[in-house]
Fold this sequence. Notes:
The structure is a single chain. The protein contains four helices and eight strands. With 205 residues, it is an alpha+beta fold. Among the domains are: 8-56, Winged helix-like DNA-binding domain superfamily/Winged helix DNA-binding domain (Arc Repressor Mutant, subunit A); 111-202, Umud Fragment, subunit A (Ribbon). The strands form two sheets. It has a six-stranded antiparallel beta sheet, with no helix packed on it. The protein has a two-stranded antiparallel ribbon with strand order 1-2.
Amino acid sequence: MPTLADTLTPHQRTVLSYIREFQQKRGYSPSLADLAVAFGVRSKNAVAKVVMVLFRTGHLEKDPKGRIKIMEQPQAEEHLPMMLPLFGPIAAGFAAPVEEQAEETITIEDYLVRDKSSTFLLRVKGDSMINAGIHEGDLVVVERGKEPRVHDIVVGILDGEFTLKRLVKEKGKYFLKAENPKYPELHAREELKIAGVVRGIIRKY
């Protein structure tokens, strides 16, 4: 669909861009004399005609004295979450009839993130959580400040070092356990803290 700017000639768009840059740098609008000098014309009438077109098309406004009014700076487009249709369920075992109607529309952000201010991502290195379906290179979605429960997958701080493991409790003591039999259980010599609880994983194929 054509926009208002599409109706302008290249010269008119150049003048409009110059006025915007002038306002941004100096805090006030250029006069017709300023525009005449900038575009190398002797008569202010030449630029006045261009300015009048920009007034008529709504690109510029006049102040009460008929001068070019300082324009609102164009606002950056608000980031809108990407909405995706949710189909399903899909059988991971035997084939099932195709469901063509989307059940609902969701955003990945809403699905994975409960509290944006407390959520961060970590990239996984190593294979110690492979049996929990977490592979090297995956991004884990971690929520800070959430009270961890036993068997949660957490970002632990074990004696000052960060690690991604499952939180386990036996005989009244907490420790961290890998989801790969090649790796030993991790017991704190001095201190075990939890930096965050894993809320989900992101993997790109």
